[in-house]
Each structure stands twice: as structure tokens, then as C-alpha cells.
Amino acid sequence: MTDTDVLDELLDLESRGWDALCASTGADFYGALMTDDALMILANGMVLDRDGVVESLRHAPPWRTYEIQNPRLVRVGSDATALVYVGIAYREGTDPAFRGVMSSVYARTSDGWRMTCYQQTRFPEE
After folding, report:
1. How far apart are CA 105 and CA 115, in angstroms?
2. pTM (2 d.p.)
3. Domains annotated on the chain, with CATH
């Protein structure tokens, strides 16, 4: 599989995740996508395991829209790759956009790509 193929597959997964967050179905999506020992490290300093992510997303307000910019791959091993990109997301109303660098580490399993770790770093306010 070429890097272009992997990038396309992981961008599709990442977009489906954002679409689920916009549709308030993120708990189900990430509950199925994340490995049992996966972690999410959020910009506010929280570190959530898979169960914590699922519970948190059940009560999270939806995003209205999002953008994925400048995606890049970092090979972590023969069956693991990190997708790194700039994410910009907007909620309803007049809240300012969330802008940050996102990295999602995926492992290829017999069931397809599974998320093992997600980390976000918010850009400083301008």
C-alpha cells in the first residue's frame, strides 16, 4: 500500500470521525474505532481512555463544521501510522473556531485501521 493510499484511508476515517462529531454520534463512532487501550489527549489537559471518550462524547455539543488542512503521515511502524494535520472546527453560534494541530495514531489490525492515540494542541489565541 502506498503512502497516498494510506493517507486517503486515514483522511477518510478522520473525516468520518468529524462528521460523527457534527451529527452527535461521536460516542458510537469512536467507541468502535478506538482500541481498548487507546487514549485521547485533549487541548484542555484531559487524558481520556476509550470509555472516558465515549462517555464524554455522549454529552458533548455538536460541531457545526470543520476543516482538515495540511495532512501528513508519520510512519510509526510496519502496521502503525500517525496522521498529523491542522484542524479548524466551529460550533453553533458565535463561539470562536477551535484551531489546533491534531495527531491520530492508527494501527492496522485484522479489522482494519483502529485508533490507538489522539492528541490535540490548540494554537495560541491571536
Report:
1. 6
2. 0.93
3. 3-122 (3.10.450.50)
